[in-house]
Amino acid sequence: MTRINIILLILLLSGSGIVLAIDGSDMIKATPVLKTQRTWIGQDIVYPEGQAEMSGVVIEMAPGGETGWHKHPVPSVGYVIEGQLEVHFKNGDVKKLNAGEAAAEAVDVWHNGVNVGEGPVKLVVFYVGTANSQLTEREDSE
């Protein structure tokens, strides 16, 4: 992951205040990628009760690869660094993300990510949970 991608991801999670604080520098370009109060399926974002813990994971998928059906019990933000990702929901809805796009993921809703491009998908997901909380639940674990 490049230094600029890391900076963008930090800005993504920090809100627009930092973007405004560093805006105007000739050495830094800050491009907001997401600011929302709802997930991409319209749910209000609610932080879990308890000691906060943030986690980040880089996920890489080969062409045609799938995540398998899973859900997240805590709010999360995904940012596609490379490739094309489709996210399928049990109700038949499909959302698409391309490189450079971000989404506040659905909470407690079953979904399956599919790499629909010809190259790999690389995305980073940040979770806002509580200390030692489960971040992802696989369908086959129920």
Structure description:
The chain starts with a helix and ends with a strand. The chain has 142 residues and is mainly beta. Residues 3-8 have low confidence and may be disordered. It folds into two domains: 1-32, no CATH class; 34-141, Sandwich (Jelly Rolls). It has helices at residues 3-14, 16-22, and strands at 52-61, 70-71, 76-82, 84-89, 94-98, 102-104, 111-115, 121-130, 137-138. It is globular, with a radius of gyration of 15 Å. The strands form three sheets. It has a four-stranded antiparallel beta sheet with strand order 1-8-3-6, with helices on one face. A three-stranded antiparallel beta sheet has the order 5-4-7, with no helix packed on it. Residues 58-127 form the Cupin type-2 domain. It comes from Candidatus Marimicrobium litorale. This is Cupin domain-containing protein. Pfam families: Cupin_2 (PF07883).
Helical/strand content category:
mainly beta
Return the domain count: 2
Biggest sheet strand order reads 1-8-3-6
Q: Could you name the ranges where pLDDT drops below 50 across 5 or more consecutive residues?
A: 3-8
| Anisotropy-based shape | globular
In round numbers, the mean pLDDT is 88
**Biggest sheet character:** 4 strands, antiparallel
CATH class of the largest domain: Mainly Beta
Listing every helix as H and every strand as E from the N terminus to the C terminus, the arrangement reads HHEEEEEEEEE
SS field, number of helical segments = 2
Under CATH, the topology of the largest domain can be stated as Jelly Rolls
CATH superfamily of the largest domain: Jelly Rolls
Organism: Candidatus Marimicrobium litorale
InterPro entries: Cupin_2, OryJ/VirC-like, RmlC-like_jellyroll, RmlC_Cupin_sf
Domain Cupin type-2: 58-127
Protein name: Cupin domain-containing protein
